[in-house]
Amino acid sequence: MARSDAAAAPPGRVHVLINPASGKEKPVLAILHRVLRDLRIEWSATVLEATTDFESALDGLLGARDAPREGRPDWIVVSGGDGTVSAVAGAMAGRDVPLAVLPGGTGNVVAQELGLPLDYETAALRLFSGPVESRSWDLIDAAGTTCILRAGLGADARMMASADSEAKATLGWAAYVRAAVEQVTDEALTNVKITFETELGGPVQELRCSVLTLLILNLSRLGRGGAVLSEDVRPDDGWLDVVLVKAASVPAVLTFLKSMVDRSTTLPRADPGQLGHPDLPVELFRARRVILEPSSDLELQIDGDMQPPLGAGCQAAFTVRPGIVRCIGLPVI
Questions:
Q1: Number of helices (H) and strands (E), helices first, in the chain?
Q2: Domain 6-142+325-329 -> CATH class
Q3: How much is the pTM?
C-alpha cells in the first residue's frame, strides 16, 4: 500500500466520470446524489462512452495543465473498474487536480489500495466525508499504454480474456479465479528475453527464461482481496516489480498463491539477470525499465483490457513514471 503524503481538505466541488458498463449494476447516480447532497458538495458528472477521449474531456473540465485552478473541480472522481481508472489516470498525469476512485467495477483493486471499502455507497460516504489523504502515485508506460495496476503477459492475459463480461458480472472475482485455473492447466511455457534497467539509461542485465506468465506490477495486490506479493511493492516507490511464474503445475502455483494470501509466505527478490530461487514457482525482480522480447507471440493485457499481442522477436518496453498522478485515499493506519 502507498504511504501517505499529506492530509487533503474535503472537496467543495467534484466532477464524476461514470463508466456505465463497469461491474454489476448499481444506482450510481442516485447514490451520488444522496451522499453529495447530504454533505453539501457541489457536483457534476459525465457518463463515459467507448469513444470518450479522456485527454480532451479533462482539458474541457480542467483547462490546460498549467491553467489557473479557479472554477475547476477540487477532485476528478472515477466511478468504474480498474481499466477505466487506468485510462483516466493516464490523462490526469502531471495535472495538479487529484484523482479519487469509487469501486464501480469487478476487481476494484485500485480502490482497495486506496483504503476504500468495496460497498459502493459505504465507499462514497467514507471518501467524501473524510478524513482523506493525498498521495503521489507512479504509473507505468506499458508498451505505449498507461498502466496503473499491472501488465500481464501469457497465461495472465489469456485468463483475463477468458473471464468474459457475462461471467464477471455474475461471478465477480470468482470468474477470474476460474479462468486462472483453466489457463494454468492448458497452456505451455513461453521463452522470453528480458532486459532490466535498474537506472534509466544505465547498464542493463539480461535474462532468458521460460515462463507461464509474466506480470509487471505497480501495486502489490493481484486481485480483489487477493495475494500481496511483497510488502515493499508500492505504487509510490518509483520502481517496476516484475513477477515471473515459471511452473505450469496447477498445484504448485495455486499452493504458492494461497500461501501468500494467508501471509504465510513472502516472495523474496532475485537479482536482475539471474533466477535466484529455483525451488519456487515464482520469481520477483525490480527495475526502472523492462524490455521484453518473446520467442513466440505473447498475449498482453493492461489493467484488465486486452491489447495486441507482442509479436515473436519484437521488443516492447515498460517504464515507470514516478509520482506522476495525485490520488485521494483513506488514511493509512
A1: 9, 17
A2: alpha beta
A3: 0.88
